[in-house]
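Bit of a strange request maybe. I'm writing a small parser for structure token strings and I need a real example to test against, not something I typed by hand. Could someone generate the tokens for this chain?
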Amino acid sequence: MAELIPFLDPRLVGERFEQHSIPLEVLKDLAVLEDLIIDVAKWHFLKDNPERQRVPKGFSDQITLNVNGIDEGSAIPRIVLCIAGGATATLFPNDHRDCLEKAKSSIISAVNAAEFDEPLDSILTDSHLAYFDRIGRSLRDGESIELDYKDTERPARLNKTTRRKLTLSAASIQQLTEEVSLRGAICEADQRKGRFELELVDNTIILAPIQSEHIATIFEAFKGYQNGLRVGIEGIGVFARNGGLKNIESIEQISILDAMDVGARLDELKLLKNGWLEGRGRAPKTEHLDWLAESFEDYYPDEIPAPYLYPTEGGDIQAEWSIGNLEASLEINLKHRTSSWHLLELDTDDENETELDLNSPEDWFKLAKLLKKLLGE
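Reply from user aminoacidic:
Good idea to test on real output. This should exercise your parser:
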């Protein structure tokens, strides 16, 4: 029977982990973390045994890192060393396990060093730091993996910022990868080269691969380019050291967008500059528009027609719906995330108004209910 030894219990912090569950995409990060730990353990073995040119054969063949459960307190996967039952004391002496413990300590120290702007060169090698291009890639803004959360002063917090520092600390790394969500039009597709060009709303061109599972969607969008057909892409983007997106490495999902897609319209509004309205008009802040796009994605029902979105002179957004003889509008205060609903019946001039808090999922449900009532549902 395999021997299970408690090894690491990182805490995942963020809204997605509050129900003590872990999205599958985050588990991919933990799988790469295992590869890093094994690689750093081998490095420690060679440092401790300078007379050796290489690690012993079978050093890690019968040792794996397994998730043995998930504890409460956000989500805390219990990671254990699983040593195969056939492994002998000769094959796996204690110093090999010591190397794994040293590897864990080095990785925790490196993550802490990145957070506190301390030197990294003496903790891990360039090749080890390069692993962080694939560890933490699934983390979103406000999320982190605390590798040593019990140390409240230095919990080894891996987030988007520390991951970037760790990756770019490797001199050999000239770019890094991150998950991206993009909207645009496919202006060119080349089957011979196996790639297509995605034209973003600001006319930037991004190269992306033609993957066999997405080929039908890609060429449908290409054919509809002249008619303004756009797609939404979820995938892995390649970024330069300065942060600029260079190309798309792989596509996880691609879909044709509705002509009234809210996210695509908000991308257009990001291009506004102060003074856009005859010298007046404040431009909405990008982070506010990102929040609104995410909120519509999370809470707005697919079966309800999307509104047309207009910028207001004060830098906010107005959403409008025309349904028969009814005109509905929602004036959205982006800074405070509040809104005013207004309904006008054109035949009678009857009006109805109400306030909605767009920070509240319940009020998004109220908005959906108001719109469904107008549609007769």
